[in-house]
Amino acid sequence: MKNPSTAQNISAATRLRLRITAAAETIVRSGHPWLFADSIHELNRAGASGELAVIYDRKDKFLAVGLFDPDSPIRVRILHAGKPQTIDAAWWQARLEQALARRRDLFDAQTTGYRLIHGESDGWPGLVLDHYDTTLVLKIYTAAWLPRLDEMLTLLKENVPCERIVLRLSRNIQAAAEHRTPVRRDGEILFSQRAETMLGAPIIFLENGLRFEADVLRGQKTGFFLDQRENRREVETLARGRRVLNAFSFSGGFSVYAARGGAKSVTDLDMSAHAVESAKRNFALNQNFPGVAACRHETVRADAFEWMASEAEKFDLIVLDPPSLAKRAAEHEGAIRAYERLNSQGIEKLARDGILVAGSCSAHVPAMEFFDAVRRAAMKSGRKFSEFKTLQHPPDHPAAFKEAEYLKVIYLKFET
Prior knowledge:
Blueprint: H1 6-9, E1 16-20, H2 22-29, E2 34-36, E3 40-43, E4 52-56, E5 62-68, E6 74-81, H3 89-103, E7 113-118, E8 127-132, E9 135-140, H4 149-159, E10 164-169, H5 174-178, E11 188-192, E12 203-207, E13 210-214, H6 229-238, E14 243-247, H7 253-260, E15 265-270, H8 273-285, H9 290-294, E16 296-301, H10 304-310, E17 315-320, H11 332-348, E18 350-360, H12 367-380, E19 385-391, E20 408-414
Parallel strand pairs: 1-4, 9-10, 14-15, 14-17, 15-16, 17-18
Antiparallel strand pairs: 1-3, 2-6, 4-5, 5-6, 7-8, 8-9, 10-11, 12-13, 18-20, 19-20
Helix pairs in contact: 6-7, 11-12
C-alpha cells in the first residue's frame, strides 16, 4: 500500500502547518473532530485537498493532524490529537481494525446489513462504510478523501471480505469528484469479483432474518436506513392485531417488521413512487413469514402532511419518521414547529389505545427539544397518554460528539 506518512514523504519544511485561535485550541483538545476555516489564523502555504495538515498550538507544540479540505467550511477533519503520530499504512490498518472490532459481536448470520465505519465517531471523519451481504458501500462527505480512494480501496480489499465495493458521494462533492483525475462518480463500482451483468439490481440482505433490498448505486444514504434497525424491531413487538400506518415509509422497513409481528394491516405512505414500489418488493420478499403473508398491505403515494390532514381512517399504531426537517442550523425553530404539527396530525389519526412512534433524524434538533415537541403535541390533544420508551443511536452508529447526535425516537401510548 502506498505510504502517505507526512514524516517520510513530506519534509518538515514543506509540511502543511496551521496555527489556530485560542478558542479552537481548546475545542481540538476536547476531542472535537472539526476545525472550521474561521478558526485558522496562519498557514505556512496553500494546502491541497486531502493533504495532511499539522496543527500547532501557540507554544509551537504539536496539537493535532487531520485531512485538509480547502473548499469546505470544515477546513480540517481531525484524525488524531495528542502526542505526534505518523499517519502511515500501519496507522490506517490499526484504525480500521478498531472499527471492525467494535462490531465483531453485534450481529449474527440473521443480520447481514450494518455499518462498519461511522465517520468521525469511529475516527474516520467524513467517511462511512456499510456492509450489505457481500457488498461494501463506501460513502464520503468531504473531497479530502478523493485523493486517498485508491489507498482506502486496497486497505478494504485486504481486510474486509467482500465481492464488490461501491462508491457513494455526498451531493456537495459530486462536481469536484467529476473534475478529478481519475474521474469519480456517485454509484461507481470501485471493485468487483464478478461480472456486473445486473448493474442496476438492488442488493438483497438480511436484517433479523427479514429480507430487504438496498439500492446501493442510487438509493438514499447508502441504499437503506440501517440506523433504524432497533426501532423496527421494537415496532414488531408492538404490532400484533393492530392497524399500522407507516408515514414517510421509504422502502417499508417498519411495515415488514410490523407484519411479521402480527399486524392486522399496514399502510405505507410516501410521496416517492420509487419508495412505494420498493416497499411492495420488500413485502413480497418476506411472504415466507406467516404474519407477512396474512397481513393486508396497502401503499399510498402522497404528501404525508396533506394526506393525514384529509384522511378519515384511524390507526392503532402510527410510525412518523420523516426526512430531516432541519438541514441547517437556521432551520431549527421551523423544524420544531413542523415536528409538533406533524405529531399532532398523527395523534388525531390514532384510535383508542393507539401507539405513536415518532422519530427525527435532524442533527440540528437536539433530542430533548424533539421529545418535548412530541410531548407538547400529545398534551395539546387532550388525550390521556403515557410515554414508555425513547431510543437513539444503535451500537453500529455511535455518536461521539454533539453534532453526531442526530437520531432520536419516542414511543407514546394513548389510553383514550
